[in-house]
């Protein structure tokens, strides 16, 4: 039997207070990414691999899959709908649900300057997506964007969720980052991890850098790193030689200005 405990409102641990949204202390943000083949260059930690191309303007997005079974019109066995969460041209938070149409593009209603997350909302008998799902602004061939730099987000086959370690602070908020973590199972290559950010219209600056080697490194900040509204935050990975797998994540709290 599960035992019950009583927490006095003045003594609730900070992390629990944020996660449970008690007393409006702030909104939790947990961003996590995975790159199966980080190169010797600084690659973004996301499933698409390579370096992420930050959009310069808001745009309607094409949602496609490489698998015809990710289709709501049948309905089929894969992903039926996907949910998008991001920012509009004014850095205000927006969200919507899009019905999948297999390898044919389904258009978003909103225009996105940033796409923070995309996940499968409903699915058929496979219980998740069967193909790779893309959000992009360019043309596609059998569901795959023709130009990699037009890709805003990617859901790996069977993942049901984007895995991307980057984020932009919404307008009207300040982000307080209190933990960053990265790891790799590679026992032959060390991987250099970089956390970087830029304010609106500014240049990227390194905020933290460390090395992982066949394990996980957690970096906690008792005094959080502070990021103002409209700031882009990104995790990068560079392998010492060849390519390596790497996962990365960071935890933040958003507080209204």
Gross CATH architecture of the largest domain: Sandwich
Class of secondary structure makeup: mainly beta
Average pLDDT, to the nearest integer? 91
What's the alpha carbon Rg, rounded to whole Å?
A: 19 Å
Overall shape: it is: globular
Helix content: under 10%
Highest-level CATH class of the largest domain: Mainly Beta
Percentage of residues in DSSP E strands:
over 45%
Secondary-structure element series: HEEEEEEEEEEEEEEEEEE
Subunit arrangement of the protein:
single chain
Instruction: Note the gap between the termini.
Output: 43 Å
Largest sheet: 5 strands, antiparallel
Uncertain runs are 1-8
According to DSSP, the number of beta strands is: 18
Give descriptors for this structure.
single chain, about 260 residues, mainly beta, Jelly Rolls, 2 domains, four-stranded antiparallel beta sheet, 18 strands, about 0% helix
Can you walk me through this structure?
- With 257 residues, the protein is an all-beta fold.
- The chain folds into two domains: 26-51 and 166-256, Sandwich (Jelly Rolls), CATH 2.60.120.1330; 59-155, no CATH class.
- It contains one helix and 18 strands.
- A hairpin with a 6-residue loop joins β14 (191-198) and β15.
- The radius of gyration is 19 Å and the shape is globular.
Short description:
By secondary structure, the chain is mainly β. The protein contains 1 helix and 18 strands.
């Amino acid at each position: 039997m599960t035992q019950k405990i009583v927490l006095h409102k003045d003594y609730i641990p900070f992390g629990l207070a944020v996660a449970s949204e008690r007393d409006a202390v702030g909104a939790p943000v947990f961003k996590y990414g995975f790159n199966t083949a980080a190169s010797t260059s600084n690659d973004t930690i996301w499933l698409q691999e390579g370096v992420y191309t930050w959009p310069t303007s808001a745009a309607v997005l094409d949602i496609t899959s490489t698998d015809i079974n990710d289709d709501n019109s049948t309905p089929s066995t894969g992903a039926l709908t996907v949910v998008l969460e991001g920012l509009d041209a004014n850095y205000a938070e927006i969200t919507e649900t899009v019905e999948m149409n297999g390898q044919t593009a389904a258009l978003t209603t909103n225009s996105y300057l940033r796409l923070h997350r995309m996940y499968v909302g409903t699915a058929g008998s496979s219980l998740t997506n069967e193909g790779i799902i893309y959000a992009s602004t360019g043309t596609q061939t059998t569901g795959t964007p023709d130009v990699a730099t037009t890709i805003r987000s990617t859901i790996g086959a069977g993942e049901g969720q984007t895995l991307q370690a980057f984020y932009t602070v919404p307008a009207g908020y300040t982000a307080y980052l209190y933990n960053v973590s990265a790891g790799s199972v590679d026992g032959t290559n060390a991987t250099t991890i970089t956390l970087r950010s830029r304010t609106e219209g500014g240049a990227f600056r390194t905020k933290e850098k460390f090395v992982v080697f066949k394990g996980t490194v957690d970096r906690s900040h008792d005094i959080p790193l502070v990021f103002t509204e409209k700031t882009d935050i990104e995790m990068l990975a560079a392998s010492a030689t060849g390519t390596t797998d790497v996962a990365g994540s960071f935890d933040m709290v958003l507080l209204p200005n």
